[in-house]
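Whether sequence alone determines local backbone shape is best considered at the level of individual chains. For completeness, the protein is quoted in full, as a sequence line and a line of structure tokens:
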Amino acid sequence: MAFHHRDEKWWLPVHRVPPGGLHNKTRKQLQHKRDCANQILKAAMAINSNTLAEMEVPEPYLDSLPKNGRSTLGDIIYHYITSDQFSPECLLDCLDLSTEYQALEVTNRVEASVYVWRRRVAAKPVNGLGRSSSARSSWGMVKDMMVDSEKRELLLAEQSEGLLICLKQRFSRLTQTSLDMSKIQYNKDVGKSILEGYSRVLESLASNIVTRIDDLLNIDELNGHAEHFAATGR
């Protein structure tokens, strides 16, 4: 029995299993290899993620960000994030993330909003030293407003970070974000570059092995069901 690939995998050989299906010993060996490859995949993903996290955020990336987080997120996500009943999981359930492209686009927007709000807070003046005593009363009112604004933006940054974590957990095999690619492009640490590149290649190879074995085990299972229905006439 053969298993035909989807159009996007047309270049891969077609999976085939013998008429009686895979032998139990063969199936167990494949499952063991699959589990080993999956452990390598998880380790490579963790190394790659940690390496990227240790790279500095490039100035060109920061300079390319919009001036405010709302325009970065879009009205729908911004409305949910600023809600008193905000829940990252509920928000993700409401969004259309049916394709990898859509999930990556939302991830890029959420990740950018974190840096927009963090940068806005960091750019605000710390205090009002040097102001005349006659202006201190007015300055106190302005300062209170600035503190409230700063707290709100810090909260929004935290909300976005929470949403970003949920996104990356739900789509653990998502391709690199705009920030990741920017870090790789502008990184000057040779050691980190080698570690990131090596772990990324290892991650891709392990992922392909896991996927191929899963496809073969699935077609073997389908073959077993087909033979059962043929034998029982149902």
Observations:
- The domain at 57-186 is CATH 1.20.58.1310 (Methane Monooxygenase Hydroxylase; Chain G, domain 1).
